[in-house]
Amino acid sequence: MRHLWSFLAGLVVAPVTWVLITLGQDGSGSTIDRWVEIKASSTANLIEPAVYLGVAGILLGLLGTLRFSPLGALVAGLLLVTPYVGMFIAPFTVRDWIPDGWKALGDPLPLRQPVENGTLFLIGVLLLMAAFSAQRWRRWPASPAEAELTSADKPAENTFALSDWPPSGARNEQDTTPPT
């Protein structure tokens, strides 16, 4: 069941990440281009693109590092690598398959940008490497069952009371010599 949920997470995270990376890259690029054009900057303009990129990073980080199943990282990695690999085979066909002119949250959504600059390929390869880590395919160790204490394992009971101390004058220490 853990592999099924991880698989579904990979199917959802890959396209959501693609959109978030596109919004972040396009927002950052257009903001910085505008700063250069007007020769002034306001770092508050970078908050929105940074949030998009940060959320994409969190989603990818969770998918790539959580140890419940590597199948999600494998699926998302393959989905993100595929468009760039397709550019080697039929670049114009792949480019035409990627939608153009969409908008998300009022911002332009140039989905071709992360494919053309290689960002999706880089992230996809990182996820594939995370999926092929040998540690991720192993089950979590089961917690050891609580061992029942036997009579030999029970701690000794201290039954002394504060009045059980020897009187102060009866000190007999063998290791010390009497004062002379």
Summarize the entry for a quick read.
With 180 residues, this protein is mainly alpha-helical. The chain is 56% helix and 3% strand.
How many structural domains does the protein architecture include?
1
- The geometry reads as elongated
Spell out the helices and strands N to C. Answer: HHHHEEHH
What structural category do the secondary elements indicate?
A: mainly alpha
Helix content: 55-70%
State which percent range the strand residues make up: under 5%
Discrete helix count: 6
What integer value in Å does the Rg equal? Answer: 32 Å
**Spatial sequence of strands, sheet with the most strands:** 1-2
Key attributes of the depicted protein:
180 residues; mainly alpha; two-stranded antiparallel sheet; 2 strands; elongated
Question: Could you describe the 3D structure shown?
Answer:
The chain crosses the membrane at residues 46-66, 73-94, 114-134. Residues 147-180 are annotated as: Disordered. Keywords: Membrane, Transmembrane, Transmembrane helix. The protein is mostly helical. It has one domain. It has helices at residues 2-38, 47-65, 71-89, 91-97, 112-116, 119-131, and strands at residues 102-104, 107-109. A two-stranded antiparallel ribbon has the order 1-2. α1 (2-38) runs antiparallel to α2, α2 (47-65) runs parallel beside α6 and α3 (71-89) packs antiparallel against α6. The relative contact order is 0.14.
